[in-house]
Design brief:
The complex is a heterodimer of chains A (494) and B (325). With 494 residues, chain A is mainly alpha-helical. Chain A is globular and about 100 Å long. Classes of the chains: A mainly alpha (494), B mainly alpha (325).
Chain lengths: 494, 325
Amino acid sequence: MALLANNRAFILFSGLLLVAVIVAISVPVKWVVLWTDALIFALITVILGSGWLVRNKPYLLAPWRRVLKRRLASAALVVLLSYVLIGLLDSVHFREALPPQVGSSEVHYSPHTLSVLDKLLTPIRIQEEKSYSAPFAIHLFSKESTQREDGTTVREYPRLQYGGAHLEDIQQRQTDITHTLLMASSYSLLAWLLLSALIIWIMAQRYSLSYRQQVERLVRGEMELPWRTLLLTLLAVMLFAFVAMMLGVKYHVFGTDKVGQDVLYQTLKSIRTGLVIGTLTTLIMLPFAVVLGVAAGYFRGWIDDTIQYIYTTLNSIPGVLLIAAAVLIMQAYIAGNPELFETMEERADARLFFLCLILGITSWTGLCRLLRGEALKLRELDYVQAAHAFGVPQHKILSSHIFPNVLHIVLITLVLDFSGLVLAEAVLSYVGIGVDPTMHSWGNMINGARLEMAREPMVWWSLMAAFIFMFILVLAANLFADAVRDAFDPRAQH
Amino acid sequence: MIAYIIRRLMYVLPILVGVNILTFALFFVVNTPDDMAHMQLGMKHVTEEAVDNWKAERGYDRPLFYNGEQAGLTTLTDTIFFDNSVRLFVFDFGQSDDGRDIGHDISERMWPSLALAIPTLIIGLLVNLTFAMLMAFFRGSYVDLSGVILCVVLMSISGLFYIIGGQWLVSKILHLVPISGYQPGLDAWKFLILPVIIGVIGGIGSGARWYRTIFLEEIARDYVRTARAKGLGEQMVLFRHVLRNALVPILTGVVVVIPLLFMGSLVMESFFGIPGLGSYTIDAIHKQDFAIVRSMVFLGSVLYIVGLILTDISYTLVDPRIRLN
């Protein structure tokens, strides 16, 4: 049965892959894999692969079950996964083919790299106004001189080109918004009901219960995992998505920024930047930290001294200054070698990748020290000593006795560091040593809006949007990380 | 004790040498003086002559490590490495790109930094301790739970939000204190009070939660059970026994950061326009003034190491079981 189930999953997976490849080839675009894209997909493959490996090992799944049993943690997971989904959609990049020129059969591609998310958000992306406009506004934020048909010039707030342009009478705005809101809510409720029905049906099949019984179990919260919370969080996420999209094509839900770009679009684009910094940074430094930390603790002696010297030295340099120095140097390098990067997006991406690398170099020492301590402890344990006595080779002891037993520390560090790194991005971008100024990121949004603080009335919506999206992501990550730490840290189990 | 400190100082010397070589490599080898000149003077349309002049003014036209044109000891001293890195060991920071004496600037600018950092540290410590004690006193109850949730929420808010929100609310809407600026002397308080409050609030989330964990670990110890068995009340147990023992890890954690207070806070100082070392550094980063950044890197690592030594010493002072060797 298990084999059959595996086969079915395998067929499904390869079928999906085949469809994806066919779609990828048949669309007239040039696919672009940026550096960070490649790493993100490598990360996803690793996660899926390890999920595949532990699927039948109850002792490895047990801590994850403990994580999911916490209602807050599973709600946080749903939120995190929706961020990840947006981030993934934003990580498949391509360049569209330009309309063919007369007399030339050669296909030229647009100098702008787009992502699937850009394509999905096309209406929001291209609806650019002239300048600032408040959320749900139908007029620009500042007055402009316009010429009437009869030749007189008046100072007035001009109508927006897109926001609320469908309204003939501006008095209808309130009713229109309410109407769209209701429509979006009912759509999302409908979609959610369908999805929940499907999930409940699958569960009913699995537990051989009638549909009704399964619904009752779920509503009463008698399932092993908090499915009720999971589904309700999903409803909240779907509600937000439908409302934002349906209102977003008609109005600028979070207003527009200085150059008239929709703030909702910007903040959705910033999600990928935040996720990349939060995950890839730890990932890039992981090999160094693990190898050096375990080696220092296990071999001791001069190896330990050397490694300790390296990390104390790196640690003693103030992190921000090391990052600043490295970023200044990289700026000089990128400016000196413009021919390496075909598009603006590729240049920005190279800088993002480098930033992750530098952040990794400044932050690996903490993990390295933890792993050293753990390896020091483990090498004295009986089973390791026994392996020694039996003449098991060193590399074998390291790979099968030490390494698996420090993995929980690696995992805990990975999730605990995530939220701090997302917040650090904003600060670094403010200091001017963060991501490329052309890249969408919460730090850049805050930095851009900060300069408008002095305006009267204030332009607050960019700040608000960035803070809200960042807050939700970081809060979810913190809650999830706490649950992971409690579940995996043997010290925390009482 | 003195022997220990001397030995420790001998041990930190290689680390400082490492920091020095690393920063030298970053600033002069990876990024050659030619690159620096181009960055300062502009990428294109710069004549070779202008670049040479720029380098000559700063002495960057000399060899990196070994000057063959000189004789005797000057083959080693008349080089970029000696002038820019070895001199740092005697805290001779040289001149910034616009010709000011960095050492003098640092000694002037460290006072505003300290005026901001010390009150933030002390008040923050007291507030966090009180909050953590409260949660530990009501442990397991709804007060504790909501306290922890509040901490997680406070932790999840970007520090920039506290600053921008605080400036907006207190300075722009309520007009209680000026938005930014600084005045030396006693008048500084009205410029400092807002950043101090914001710094304290921004630190509550992670600080109080961490202290709470320490308190709860202490409460689970045997001596607490003994104290209870003696019939001591909860307040007596918490304040006389738990607090005093929990202060060991807390104070030693604080001692590490005390020397680093000199460096100031980059974000706070630049948002509030306080002329301390933090805004000095940020200005240098924006101006791409490598001489200042390099000096601050060196200063920062010296202070970090001082913090480590102070931590060791403070351990022995607060906990007589620990002996230095």
